[in-house]
Design brief:
This protein has about 240 residues and is mainly β. About 0% of the residues lie in helices and about 60% in strands. The protein is built from no helices and 20 strands. The strands form two sheets. It has a six-stranded parallel beta barrel. A two-stranded parallel sheet has the order 18-20.
Length: about 240
C-alpha cells in the first residue's frame, strides 16, 4: 500500500506476482518520463488519476477505480502485450482518442467491467478483443472504429451502451466468411443504442443471440450490397 507521505515520480518496472498495489487518495498520477511496465499487478485507485507516457502491460493486470476517473494525457500509450490482458473495472476513462489503449497482437485482450468510456476524438481498436462485463457505456460525439479480426463478447447479464451521438463502425474484417465482430453470450447480453450512428462495414455482420435496444434516434448505415454482407439477425433456427 502506498501511504499518504509517498510521492510516485515514475513507475519503472513493477512485477506484481498477482498482488495488489493500493494507492492512497493523495496519489493522483504519475508522469512516466520513460516507458514503464507492469507485470501481473492489480492496482486500486482512491482518487482521480492522471496517466501519461508509455505503460506496457504484461500478464494479467487490472485497475479498479472505485468509481474514480482514469484520465489519459495526450502522450499516453497503453500497450497490452501478447498473451496479456488489462481489466478496467468500476472506472471512468477520460481522454480516449487515436489508439491510446491498444493490443500489440491478437492474443491480447481488454476487459471493460462497469466502465464509462469517454472519447474526446476518434479511436480505432485494430487488434485483440474486448470483453464487456456488466454496464459499459461509450460516450462522446466521435467515431469508435472496431477493426480487429477477432470477435469481442458481451457477457451474460451485461450491456454495451452507446450514447451521446457516438458513432461506431464495425463488421467482419474482410468478407462474409470472416468472424463476426460481436458475440452475444445469451439473451441477457444487450447492445443498447441511444442517439447514435452504427456503421456496418461492407463485409457485414450477424447477430445470433442477445438483445438489441434502440432509444431516441439511431441511424444504421450499412455499406454491404448483398444480404450476406448486410446486418443479419438470427442463426437460421426459428
Amino acid at each position: 500500500q502506498l501511504k499518504n507521505d509517498a510521492t510516485l515520480i515514475s513507475m519503472g518496472s513493477v512485477y506484481g506476482n498477482n498482488n495488489v498495489f493500493d494507492l492512497s487518495a493523495n496519489v493522483t498520477g504519475w508522469a512516466n518520463p520513460y516507458p514503464s511496465s507492469i507485470h501481473d499487478l492489480h492496482t486500486l485507485l482512491h482518487s482521480d488519476f492522471i496517466l501519461s507516457g508509455t505503460l506496457n502491460i504484461h500478464g494479467n493486470c487490472s485497475i479498479n477505480g472505485h468509481w474514480n476517473s482514469l484520465i489519459l494525457s495526450d502522450d499516453v500509450n497503453i500497450l497490452i502485450h501478447p498473451d496479456s490482458s488489462l481489466h478496467l473495472r468500476n472506472l471512468e476513462v477520460d481522454g480516449i482518442s487515436g489508439s491510446k489503449i491498444r493490443c500489440v497482437n491478437d492474443s491480447a485482450q481488454l476487459l471493460l467491467d462497469n466502465v464509462r468510456w469517454v472519447q474526446d476524438d476518434n479511436f480505432s481498436f485494430t487488434r485483440g478483443s474486448i470483453l464487456f462485463n456488466n454496464e459499459v457505456n461509450f460516450v462522446g460525439p466521435y467515431l469508435f472504429n472496431y477493426a480487429s479480426a477477432l470477435t469481442s463478447t458481451i457477457s451474460a447479464d451485461s450491456r454495451w451502451y452507446l450514447s451521446d451521438i457516438i458513432e461506431v463502425s464495425l463488421g467482419r474484417k474482410n468478407s462474409y466468411m470472416d468472424r463476426n465482430p460481436i458475440y452475444f453470450e445469451d439473451i441477457t447480453s444487450e447492445w443498447r443504442m441511444e442517439n447514435c450512428t452504427v456503421n456496418i462495414t461492407g463485409s457485414g455482420m450477424d447477430v445470433t443471440n442477445g438483445t438489441i435496444t434502440v432509444d431516441g434516434e439511431v441511424k444504421f448505415d450499412i455499406d454491404g450490397t448483398t444480404s450476406q454482407c448486410g446486418l443479419r439477425f438470427g442463426d437460421g433456427v426459428e
